Amino acid sequence: MSIDALKQAIPDFAKDVRLNLSSMASDETLTEQQKYGLFAACGIASRNAQVRDALLEEASSKLSPAALAAAKSAAAIMGMNNVYYRFVHLAANKDYQSMPAKLRMNVIGNPGVDKIDFELWSIAISAMNGCGMCIDAHEETLRKGGVTTDKIQTAVRFAAIIASAAIALEAAETDADALAA
């Protein structure tokens, strides 16, 4: 399934989602690797097979094997880190903040692609997963790397659009299940 097929699968009640998906492909704020890495990483992080498969198909022809692997790594490592650091941030017991995480995360230091690209993918996934500590850490790294507010906002906007596509498809499945019952 391609992104065009994904847009066609979005139900009419979510027309805005379909339009926003269309705008992502033509956005020129990001490099091609940044954009398609976001498609892959956020598609995986959406946890929706239809969205994941469509965006991975779209990205796989635009990314090198190393960049595709790095996008997948961003989704995987942020899946772990966002849970842990969201807990640390939200827990009433602040002792956790001074404890070592004891989680391996070597890929963050050596992602196999430009560090800025990996950080953009990581901040987008962290926004999807609602981890404020990770958002702050990745934004700080991106800002120190000279990344503009526009680029960071675009990455997070892509994450929001991809998450909403997954929700729209889930809602459509619920409608179809109700009709079948």
Outline the structure in words:
The chain has 9 helices and no strands. It is an all-alpha fold and 181 residues long. The model has no long low-confidence stretch (mean pLDDT 94). It has a single domain, classed as AhpD-like (Up-down Bundle), CATH 1.20.1290. α1 runs antiparallel to α2 and α3 (32-45) packs antiparallel against α4.
How much helical structure, as a percent, in the residues?
over 70%
Quaternary structure? single chain
CATH architecture assignment name: Up-down Bundle
CATH superfamily: AhpD-like
- Unreliable stretches (pLDDT < 50, length at least 5) are none
Helices and strands in order:
Blueprint: H1 3-9, H2 15-26, H3 32-45, H4 49-60, H5 65-90, H6 106-109, H7 115-129, H8 132-144, H9 149-180
Helix pairs in contact: 1-2, 1-4, 2-9, 3-4, 3-5, 3-7, 3-9, 5-7, 7-8, 7-9
